[in-house]
Design brief:
two-stranded antiparallel ribbon, 6 helices, binds zinc ion, two-stranded antiparallel sheet, 6 strands, alpha+beta
Length: 178
């Protein structure tokens, strides 16, 4: 996987300027083709989609992600499940494990890192993105058009629609149909 998808952040540090601020928007809106922007190959993108369709506690990572993003955008309180996911998303190394070992009749503790938990770098990245959306560091809005449920990174502070298409459509519905 190329660089950007393995971004592992320190939640206390400021968001780096090269953090892919739109990545969660593309994932949420299922616009996977746009991930090419982060120099991902078609294979990388397919792999990312595969990862998102794997299940976590009975739900796909994709649905865990979209529900969590919904709560983040609305500023709702995080659930126990959200907390668990965020904790893993920010674990730089897996949990440290301390075990005991014995040699020549002497015991000594051994610190090692636990095996991977089946959460890939790309999955971690999108949940890190959710965290920064929740904190308000990355600004996200939901399109105001009635029949559109897409989210977007606003370019202007007064931007209400995800695209020119939605803005034009709403304008047409409002002014031409009466
Ligand atoms: Zn829209």
């Amino acid at each position: 996987m190329s660089g950007v998808l393995s971004t592992l952040l320190d939640p206390f540090a400021e968001l780096p300027s090269n953090f892919p601020r739109e990545i969660g928007v593309f994932v949420y809106n299922a616009d996977f083709d746009y991930l090419e922007k982060y120099s991902l190959s078609t294979e990388d993108i397919r792999h990312f989609q595969e990862e998102l369709s794997k299940t976590h506690e009975g739900k796909t990572w994709y649905s865990v992600f979209t529900r969590m993003t919904d709560r983040a955008i609305e500023g709702k309180k995080s659930t126990q499940g959200d907390k668990k996911v965020l904790r893993v998303a920010f674990l730089r190394y897996e949990d440290y494990m301390v075990s005991d070992n014995q040699e020549n009749n002497r015991w000594f503790p051994v610190v090692s890192t636990k095996a991977a938990r089946g959460i890939s770098g790309s999955i971690r990245l999108v949940f890190q993105w959710v965290y920064y959306v929740w904190r308000g560091t990355i600004k996200i809005r939901r399109c105001k058009a009635k029949d559109c449920d897409r989210i977007f990174n606003p370019v202007r502070s007064d931007q209400e629609y995800c695209s020119k298409r939605c803005a034009k459509r709403v304008w047409a519905q409002t002014y031409l149909e009466r």
